[in-house]
Design goal:
The complex is a heterodimer of chains A (238) and B (292).
Chain A lengths: L2 E11 L4 E11 L3 E5 L6 H9 L6 E6 L2 E2 L5 H6 L2 E4 L11 H9 L5 H14 L1 H4 L11 H13 L5 E5 L7 H18 L2 E6 L2 H7 L2 E6 L2 E7 H6 L1 H8 L2
Parallel strand pairs in A: 3-8, 3-9, 6-7, 7-8
Antiparallel strand pairs in A: 1-2, 1-4, 4-5, 9-10
Helix pairs in contact in A: 3-4, 3-6
Chain B lengths: L3 H29 L6 H19 L2 H22 L9 H23 L16 E2 L2 E2 L3 H23 L1 H11 L1 H6 L4 H23 L12 H14 L4 H22 L4 H15 L14
Antiparallel strand pairs in B: 1-2
The complex binds adenosine-5'-diphosphate (ADP) and magnesium ion.
The site of adenosine-5'-diphosphate has 10 residues of chain A, from helix 1.
């Protein structure tokens, strides 16, 4: 399998010292990769840089063979790079249906668009009952389903999912991640899943990349990471 | 009592124009978080275009169409040419740029066309129809009401029933998330300015013939009243603009009719102050906090 995403000596910062130090790694097409690390390690910064929301100081993001340096955020989305940001970012003023529709607009028209929306309702059944509720009326779990469904609706090739477990009950997290894993297996979707909650991330990931203060401290198959108690203690806190 | 019906009808027609203009301010506020103090000056430029086109072709309707197009073009130019470069982060930068724009546009019109008032003709009678000796409403008032209601209904449909409207709303509420979903937010912002300026131009074109005539300052009071309406209704609320417009229109018409035209601006000012004291966010300010 060829690499879908390649991060090449990426340096990102917010004014002071860099937050990511010459980060390099790549993800083959179809892999589900956990991006692990404590709060402040730089997971969100990396995801925002990949999506184009923060400009790197140097280095590049290569997606499907194309250097993305000069590609705008919305065009990265249109090339098949989807992101569910930290905090889920459901548009509070729009209904569930409108939030989903928004994700499908550039990709599908007419009947195809309606079918794509219906498929998400089949994937996340609780959403179907809340079609016309406003985003701000949803529970945390419903918001995460909506944010994920809205990202999946355009059939992206790479999904960047930032801390979906934050503030959710373990059972809810497990059911959402299960849907994600099934979708990846079914469609060949590539996933980069940022999590502090290492156990849930490793439960569905093939591989884990551990970030510590902006550098990669480990990169290994998920079961190896789960078994490495020294590493767990040093960087993952369990 | 004889004049009450007529004052109410005229008040409604004027109120509809204020509502349209206030709605145009709400559109920009929602899209760009800017109170566009240049909206009146931009609209008066479009009204001069309409005046010129009607003068050349003899057709009021071609003039009306060109006011809409000119308004949209001015909205495009102001957003792409000026506002886009306003420093982000301070709410004042946009306001100061807008005030600068007012000076530039109004002086340019003054240099080109002078300060005299140019009467604008309309294809409807502006005198009231009499029923049993009582003045009721004028055909022009009715025309204004119908146009304003049609435009507002069209805007409501655009924003709530179309893909473009969904993208306009999403870009206004959550620009970053919208971009992540492939929405061309910067294009939506431009379209928002174009729509808004076109609506404001239409409002100006409807109002100016009922005033002294066209002059570079013809829309100054319209802006002040519509701004009051937008604040009274809540800058974030299109229904607030509609209802606020009608209320301010009726207040002006009744106060002018019964107390005299010099009292009207004072009455509007009192209304503004009272609303700001009681509900600083406007009567229709959204109750739930923004979370997106
Ligand atoms: N917008 C910002 N401005 C300045 N510093 C930031 C900003 N966002 C994150 N940081 C800093 O960058 C570092 C990495 O943060 P972040 O990427 O959010 O980590 P994580 O998602 O792994 O918790 C932290 O030290 C944080 O304080
Ligand atoms: Mg984070």
């Amino acid at each position: 399998m060829s690499d879908l995403l390649e991060i090449d000596r990426l340096v990102v910062g917010y004014g002071g010292a860099p937050v990511l130090h010459e980060l390099s790694f790549s993800i083959p097409s179809g892999a589900v990769v956990g991006l692990l690390g404590a709060n402040g390690a730089g997971k969100t910064t990396l995801m925002r840089a990949i999506a184009g929301l923060v400009a790197p100081r140097s280095g590049s993001v290569v997606f499907d063979g194309d250097v993305l340096d000069d590609v705008a955020v919305e065009d990265r989305a249109r090339r098949g790079l989807a992101q569910v940001p930290e905090g889920r970012s459901v548009v509070a003023e729009l209904t569930v249906d409108e939030n989903l529709r928004l994700g499908a607009l550039w990709r599908f028209r007419g009947a195809e668009r309606e079918r794509a929306i219906d498929e998400i309702y089949e994937l996340f059944e609780p959403l179907a009952r809340r079609r016309s509720s406003a985003g701000h009326q949803l529970s945390g779990g419903e918001r995460q389903m909506l944010a994920l469904g809205r990202a999946l609706i355009a059939r992206p090739r790479l999904l960047l999912l930032d801390e979906p477990s934050l503030g959710l009950a373990p059972l809810v997290v497990a059911s959402i991640l299960e849907v994600l894993r099934d979708t990846a297996d079914r469609t060949g979707l590539t996933v980069l899943l940022a999590e502090q909650n290492v156990t849930s991330a490793l439960s569905i990931a093939d591989r884990g990349i551990v970030l510590g203060l902006g550098e990669i401290v480990a990169d290994a198959p998920a079961d190896t990471l789960a078994a490495d108690s020294a590493l767990r203690h040093a960087y993952l806190g369990f | 009592m004889d004049r009450l019906l007529y004052l109410l009808a005229t008040g409604l027609a004027r109120g509809a124009v204020f509502a349209l203009f206030a709605l145009s301010l709400v559109l920009i506020w929602r899209a760009a978080r800017i109170v566009n103090f240049a909206q009146g000056a931009m609209a008066v430029v479009a009204t001069y275009v309409a005046f010129a086109v009607t003068g050349l072709t003899g057709s009021y309707w071609l003039g009306l169409g060109s006011a809409l197009l000119a308004g949209a073009a001015i909205g495009f130019a102001v957003e792409r040419g000026v506002m886009r470069f306003a420093p982000q982060g301070s709410p004042f930068s946009g306001v100061i740029i807008a005030i600068g724009l007012v000076m530039v546009l109004q002086s340019a019109l003054g240099i080109l066309f002078g300060q005299q008032h140019r009467p604008m003709a309309v294809p409807f009678d502006e005198r009231p129809i009499m029923i049993a000796g009582v003045p009721v409403f004028s055909p022009y008032d009715l025309f204004v009401l119908v146009v304003a209601v049609a435009v507002m209904a069209a805007l409501a449909l655009l924003f709530t029933r179309t893909s473009l409207g969904l993208q306009l709303r999403a870009s206004a509420f959550a620009p970053e998330v919208s971009r992540l979903l492939g929405v061309r937010v910067s294009r939506m912002l431009t379209i928002g300015w174009m729509l808004s300026a076109a609506v404001a131009s239409l409002a100006a074109l409807l109002l100016v013939p009922t005033e002294l005539g066209l002059n570079p300052h013809s829309t100054d009071m319209l802006f002040v009243y519509a701004f009051t309406v937008a604040v009274v209704g809540g800058l974030d609320s299109p229904p607030g603009a509609l209802i606020g417009g009608l209320v301010v229109g009726l207040v002006i018409s009744l106060v002018t009719g019964y107390l005299g035209s010099t009292v009207a601006p004072i009455a509007v000012l009192v209304l503004l102050v009272v609303v700001l004291l009681v509900r600083p966010g406007g009567i229709f300010a959204a109750r739930e906090a923004r979370t997106a």
